[in-house]
Design a protein that fits this description.
By secondary structure, the protein is mainly alpha-helical. It has 4 helices and no strands. Helix 1 runs antiparallel to helix 2 and helix 2 packs across helix 3.
Length: 61
């Protein structure tokens, strides 16, 4: 699987915070958010998840 898509999929699962996920892939958080922004549905899901403080993808805080 393409690493970008793998990153997006992991991001949407919500198992790790963005910082840890970016460290795992060796990219900056800025780059991580830019990648996420290129996939509108993914960006919307992640934004809603962080805004409302609960997960649409079974993320536990």
């Amino acid at each position: 699987m393409d690493e970008k898509l793998a990153f997006i999929n992991e991001c949407l699962r919500g198992e790790l915070p963005m910082t840890a996920l970016c460290e795992r892939y060796g990219i900056s958080r800025d780059t991580g958010y830019r990648l996420l922004g290129r996939y509108p549905a993914a960006a919307a899901a992640r934004t809603n998840q962080e805004t409302y403080g609960y997960s649409l993808f079974n993320r536990h805080r």
